Amino acid sequence: MELGIRVRFAPSPTGSLHIGGARTALFNYLFARAGGGRLVLRLEDTDFERHIPGAEEGIIQSLRWLGIDWDEGPDVGGPYGPYRQSERLDIYRREAGRLLAAGLAYKCYCTPEELAAEREKARKAGRAPRYNGRCRELTEAEQAAKAAAGMKFALRLKVPATGQTVVEDLIHGPVVFENATLDDFIIMKSNGVPTYNFACVVDDATMGITHVIRAEEHLSNTPKQILIFRALGYALPVYAHVPMILAPDRAKLSKRHGATGVEEFRAQGYLPEALFNYLALLGWSPGDEREILSREEIIRDFSLTAVSKHAAIYDLQKLTWLNSQYMNALPLERLLELALPFFKAAELVGETLVPGEREYVLRVLETVRSRARTLVELADMACYFFRDDFTYDPKGVQKFFTAPGVPELLRAGKETLARVENFGLAETEAAYRELIAARGISGGMLIHPTRLALTGRTVGPGLFDIIVLLGKERCLERLEKAAAWIEENAVRK
Ligand code: GLU
């Protein structure tokens, strides 16, 4: 049966999803969707010691938040399951048994102490540590004796001592490995659990994976995996190792470079659309100047052969720039959906929106979104549209509240607004302009203290946009409150 393209993302549930993993998942997703193929999610969870409870759920949640979906996986099922390696142990044992029976693998009874001593010897001699192949030559009688003594054994693959194994990589081209640099590596540990390389190959083969797209750090595992594929008699998949992601200083990306986990970006107010777009550009480019690309465009234009083999440099400024572009361009309803959790957390709105509130929030978003780079900034900038309990920016107070007569001027503004019947942009602005002209003062002398009185801040959207959105009643209240506050606090230069 011709299966068509089948790819997989195979995270280990040992932590949260980082941008490197997310980018690998994304490239698999794009390749599958671009080629009408299927994406499999496989959990590589046989490293029981490093397993972190809840990590699987966290990874799935991060992927879904990013807008990556899969056709088969532990949560959605599929014809090649189970999709957790911990539930496939019998399959690995069966396949390992085949290799043993065919004489392509052998039992190794060396104890951890013996192996450690070997490694130490190699280290002292300046050699790379390699298994010395001692158990490969055990006679049947020797084996029987060890078995009778109840000794534990691991299974090792018989690796050819000479020749080369070539990885034909879609991104890197042919990469040649000398078999002499490999040793008879372990495929099944003595506790009956497969090693990463063995489980990975058995799964890739039995799940019908056609293309293995994964991080470049796995390239050194690939010759071993190819040898396992050949020993088992399965056809090889096509390999594509995607480049590393480095920090701006070209060091390995780590905590000290700030957020690197998808969940952290989400919490900091990055949009899934922006992160999706940004991750696609980490190693891939559409071949022209475009940087803002929709999901559909990326899927249409994505190709593995256009992925660079050079490391991609992570650039937070660019991500933040993309984020602000998306904040501005998204349909307001979508922005509302994304912003609501942040508005709730900042206690700007309650758990559910009361009737009419939705329209108000949409208008606030429309007014402030061009200035915010993240949803966190957006919630902060929207604060005074929902709460009266803000304080006045101290620098603003020094600048705009200390001139003599400011309370009186604010009250004059209040009277002026009180008289505006049709409380629209043009009407409120005209009324204020009249007051400014009548007083013979500069516009700023009224506008700046008014803004501070209404918002507590010195910068923000256009003043009359704010005035109209707040509505007459709140404007009057806030102007009076500010005037009284200045008097009470006797602010003087
Ligand atoms: N579980 C491996 C990892 O998270 C997967 C490697 C692979 O894709 O083969 O790095």
Would you kindly provide a written description of the structure presented here, covering whatever features stand out?
This protein is mainly alpha-helical and 493 residues long. It has four domains: 1-74 and 243-329, HUPs (Rossmann fold, 3-Layer(aba) Sandwich), CATH 3.40.50.620; 89-242, 3-Layer(aba) Sandwich (Rossmann fold), CATH 3.40.50.620; 331-387; 394-489, Arc Repressor Mutant, subunit A, CATH 1.10.10.350. Helices cover 47% and strands 9% of the residues. The chain contains 20 helices and eleven strands. The chain has helices at residues 19-34, 55-66, 89-101, 112-124, 140-148, 196-206, 222-232, 262-267, 272-280, 295-301, 316-329, 332-345, 357-368, 375-382, 394-400, 406-419, 425-439, 443-455, 463-470, 472-489; strands spanning 6-9, 38-41, 105-108, 154-157, 164-169, 173-178, 186-188, 211-215, 238-242, 245-246, 312-313. A three-stranded antiparallel β-sheet has the order 3-4-7. A hairpin with a 3-residue loop joins strand 5 (164-169) and strand 6. Helix 12 crosses helix 13 (357-368), helix 12 crosses helix 14 and helix 17 crosses helix 19. The chain is elongated and about 110 Å long. The N and C termini lie far apart (85 Å). 34% of the residues are buried. The model has no long low-confidence stretch (mean pLDDT 95). The structure holds glutamic acid. The site of glutamic acid has 7 residues, from loops.
Which properties best describe this structure?
single chain; 493 residues; mainly alpha; Rossmann fold; 3-stranded antiparallel beta sheet; elongated; binds glutamic acid
